[in-house]
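Why do we bother with holo predictions? Because pocket geometry can differ from the apo form. Keep that in mind while you read this record for zinc ion.
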Amino acid sequence: MREPLLTGAAPRSETARDLRIRNERRLLFKLREQPAMTRAEIAATLGMTPMAAGRIASRLLARGLLVEAPLALKGPGRPGSTLSLSDDWMGVGIDIRAHQSTVSCVNPRGQELLRLDAGTPHVGDPQRTINELVPVVREAIAQGGREVSGIGVGLAAALDDDYLHVTHSAYLDWHHVPFKKLLGEQLPYPIALKNIAECAILANSEQIGPASYRLLMHVQIGVGLGIALTQSRDVLNTLAVGGNMGHVFLGDSRRLCNCGRSGCVDTMVGFSAFSAPGRAHGVSGNWSRMDSTTRQILADARRGESWAVSCIQQLQEDLARVITVFTTINGPDRVTLGGYPRMLDDEFFAGLDEKVSANLRTPSPIVHTDIADRASAIGAGLLGLSLVRA
Ligand SMILES: [Zn+2]
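The structure, written out:
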């Protein structure tokens, strides 16, 4: 891969905190394959002293991510114990997209236990949106039936550096909203906020494994485009770079963006551009739902409707261009994709990989994970699981 023009995550030396987080992740990842390990096995796996391994285990036990069980006595000496992933705790993830919100409960294995539809966020009215979300979150917690370590929230919005406020969300028309405080007033749990692309990258990085990439880039496409980056060694330290990326001048200069300029990436691959031919052809359906509309357009394309075929071909062409440009700029070695294009089929992704590969003149860096478009909701749940309950 060529040297990136500008790297979003600048190289720096690994700190003690980076190392701790990396070792925690390696252990949790290992315990998904191997259900129970002793502290001595953990030390051997992580290549560290038993004392250091014991400290990592204690922290994960305190967060409710691990449980300890006595080991059957085999010979003389002190009976040991094994550690496994807990099934007693869960993280709650709230995924707030411009068109639709969902609430998920996620266990320490990264599996989604349940998912509830939480309606559509209100444009210009974050408080009403929160008031409608809260009963759905309480219902999810009741149905999940496990202790809650925390609530993670993924927002289709730009957040402040401390992840407390929504600074702005162009499509929701929310500005300077103290979202964490407002939600915390009704839900007495630890709460953390991130952008939806950042939540998706948390879940995707756990899916593909911390050892399988150096720099991961996630491209989230809904009404607009969001991008997040993370390094293998410190997945919680994600970087949302989407705010500006969606308004890079790469598209048709005649198309006006809601930011006031024209030719933005958002007007090229955003849902409005993709679905416009469907509206023009009078396709019936629920236009407020990106998933059902996208599936409808795919079904029409399979029936040979030429407008639908060209709609999907155009998206493939434009998306390949967008992924090529942002891969060149940011220099990731792996790329994941979320949002409405995830509703399309294997044929679409095979063609996309081919085009990106041809543009970059390298094998396609796109990884297709099993969790597909559930990544942002699952990642919000994992964010909830990363919180320590006081
Ligand atoms: Zn724009």
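The CA atoms of residues 276 and 282 lie 10 Å apart.
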